[in-house]
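JOB MANIFEST
job_type = single_chain_structure
chain_count = 1
residues = 221
[input]
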Amino acid sequence: MDIHEAIKRRHSVRKYKNIPLSDEHKIALFKKIDEINKKSGLHIQLVTDEPKAFDCLIAKYGNFSGVKNYVAMIGEKGENLDELCGYYGEELVLFAQQMGLNTCWAKMSYKKVPGAFEVKSGEELVIVISIGYGENEGKQHKSKKPSEAAKDYDTAPDWFKRGVDAALLAPTAINQQKFSFFYSENKVTAKAGLGPCRMIDLGIVKYHFEIGAGKENFIWG
């Protein structure tokens, strides 16, 4: 499937089959993570065959089960770190979806396992992403109307509408969708609302917007 189809088909999945990641999938994920780390400056890490992080009460409360593989989104501390982790984490999420893997962003529903991943001095673990073969494909959640996310949507150019439509298919914390898009000619501004994980969400939806709108059609303002 192409990335546009991946955006439409990808939903959060919290329950996973007891199947190890195939060597093919692991190699592809490690290669993609290395590529993203080089261009972003992040320190993203794939943790495989590690069942302890999601084998805790808070994970069960979050309805996670069978999670043995996850991505640790790590980078140098800074005011843009959350947004960077959202943006590049979603690039990885959609890459995984294209390979037939399932994912779910998890901010609180796990515990840190010593030695599972490396957080260097000056770095911070922002969030993790469960990954594997889901027991199901998840389900679509209710979404805002496009005009609620972009007040000028109805009179906007087609590329802007496609961007907003793609952004509204992005995962956000507790499905809050607290973001707004504005445009002036070919300049687009994305703003985060109030709420948990707001800047992570902003990075995620900006990545979706770029895919939908086409990066060649606008610049971020």
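[summary]
Residues 46 and 71 are 5 Å apart (CA to CA).
Strands lie at 45-47, 70-76, 102-106, 123-132, 179-184, 187-192, 219-220.
exit_status = 0
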